[in-house]
Every structure is written in C-alpha cells, then in structure tokens.
Amino acid sequence: MTTARQIHLVRRPMGIPVPDDFALVEADIADAGEGEVQVAALWMSVDPYMRPRLDADQALGEPMIGGGIGRVVQSRNPRFAEGDLVRHGFGFRELFTRDGKGLQKLAPDPELPLSVYLHALGGTGMTAYGGLLEVGALKDGEQVFVSTAGGAVGSVVAQIARIKGCRVVGSTGSDAKAAWLRDVAGLDAVINYKTQPLAKAVAEATPKGIDVYFENVGGAHLDAALQRMNVHGRIPVCGMISTYNGGGEGVQNLFKLIYGKVRMQGFVASDFGHLAAQFVADMTGWLKDGQIKYQETVLEGFEAAPEGLIGLFEGRNSGKMLIHIAD
User: Fold this and answer.
1) Are residues 154 and 249 in the same domain?
2) Which residues are in the Enoyl reductase (ER) domain (predicted)?
3) Contact at 8 Å (CB) between 6 and 303?
C-alpha cells in the first residue's frame, strides 16, 4: 500500500470552472494483486468533452475523468510487464491499480514524442480522421470549413483536408492562432471570429460554398456555415463548445438543412475502431514527413490539471492541452 495524489471534483461548476471546484487529495493505493497492474502517470490529457460531464456524469468527491499515458510499475498480470507504456481512461490519478481492462499497450514510434499519442495519434486524431473522412465523407478537392481550427481536433481536421487537396477555411479566436494556421498549417483562409463579423467573413472566405463543415462550436458558427452549405453538404458534429459553460447562441438557419439536403451527424471517437490500423499508418506517416503539424500547451506537474481544464475554456491553449507528470 502506498499513497498518491488525485484530482477530485468537489463542486459543480457554474459556467467556466474555477479552482475551488477541484481538490488535490491524497489517497491510499493498493499494491497490484493477482491479475492486476499498478500504473504511474506520465502524461494526462485535458479535453473539451470533460466540461459537460462535470454537470452530472462526474461524481463529486471522486477522481476526475480523463485519459492519459502511464508506465506499469507493478504487474501480476501476464499481459503486462513492468515498464510497459499504456494508454488509459482512468482519470486524474498519479497512481492507480487495475485488473488490466481499459489499458492499451503502447509501442510508440521512436522518431515521435510520446505526447503525440494523446493527440494526433490518440483520441483527438482519430476523432478528426474518422469524423472528416467517414462521417463527413470528404472527397478530394472539396470546400471545407473547420471551426476552432486552432484546437487539437480542428487543426488535424484542417490539415487532413489540405492533404486531400481541398480548399480549407478555419476559424479561431486569436491573431497568433490565425497566423499559425495560415503560415504553418497552410490553410487557405483563416477567420478570427473575435475581431471579424463571423457570417460576413465566412461568406467571403467560401466563394464556392461549403461541402463539409466540421462542427466544434455550434451557435453563431453553425448559423454562418448553414448559410453557405452546398447541396448535399455534410456537417460532422464533433462538439458544441459554445454551450458547454451555459448560455450559448441560438441557431436560426437549421431550415437550410431541408432544402440543401444537408446531412448533419454527431459521432464519438469510439465509432471508428474499424479504422484504427489505417489511421495509425496514415497519421504516423503524415507526422514523420511533416504533412501534419501540431502545437502543444504543456503544463508541468500533476497538480496543474485543474489549471489546464480552466485554461482550455479561457482559450489559453494552442493546440492540445497536456499535463506532464514524469518521463
């Protein structure tokens, strides 16, 4: 038996979370028993999906939900050896003991940093890949609009669309992010929705309309995109971040779905297990040959996890928000 830290939710957030909604707690962790492994955290992932779960799904006084990468430090399970790297979904825990279910062994490419297995080669990358290519049914050379294109998912979506020869327009909330998308990621046009009138900017940036709108935001972004959707356009719905902290803007143009014969469909990363092998092969190649660029915002130390989640909703991240705990 040993002790280790956990991040607990202790109060339901009202709007954007604040530090007092969380607590850093010491917990007793049992040694690995028969058939079990003990895992020490190396990296933790901070993601937008975590916020709506704080309103109901996340139990108070329990470790925060979330994914990460860890190292097996004790094993009495024949499927795992001490030293194995694993990807998991067991939340904000410095150390945990489990029976091995829900752990995915990692064999990272030595030419890539381990952290990419929590974004471009992890759930966010699969979300982008499957959402765009399967749900969005992207065809080479189409017209694509991506909201929150500076985020971990949106930036990968935009670059995959560029690889497929599409014209790609992205929206983001800062000039610095806009410059990265334009100058590094190679988007054809970038909109700063905080400084430009959104509907007018989307219209001007999409002279041939929109075939695929990758939806991360909802509200005014969805309204602006609906005005520009081409007949038989597709809207894969990854997120509605404008509503996650309460409030949000009403959508007026949903009738455009009818006469435009536009398909709008939600999805989650786990829908795409059948694409896993092709995704890993494609994404590994794109990362290694520089066709996919990425940004990481890395906070150091386990205790920084609440700050990372709060910062995500205040726009303090560029690309993927990560917590680095140990090497």
Assistant:
1) yes
2) 17-323
3) no
At 177, which CATH number? 3.40.50.720
pLDDT at 244 over 80: no
Q: What is the mean pLDDT of the chain?
A: 95
Instruction: Please state, in angstroms and rounded to a whole number, the distance separating the CA atoms of residues 248 and 60.
Output: 25
For residue 96, give both structure tokens: 């945990």
- Integer CA distances (angstroms), 61 to 12, 54, 111, 136, 192, in order: 11, 12, 40, 39, 39
Q: Which pLDDT band holds residue 1 (cuts at 50, 70, 90)?
A: confident
Give pLDDT tens digits for 116-130: 999 999 999 999 999
Count of the separate structural domains present in the chain:
2
Note whether residue 283 is domain-resident: no
Distance CA 306, CA 20 (A): 9
pTM above 0.70, yes or no: yes
Domain enclosing residue 310, as ranges: 2-119+295-324
Q: What gap in Å lies between CA 30 and CA 26, rounded to an integer?
A: 13
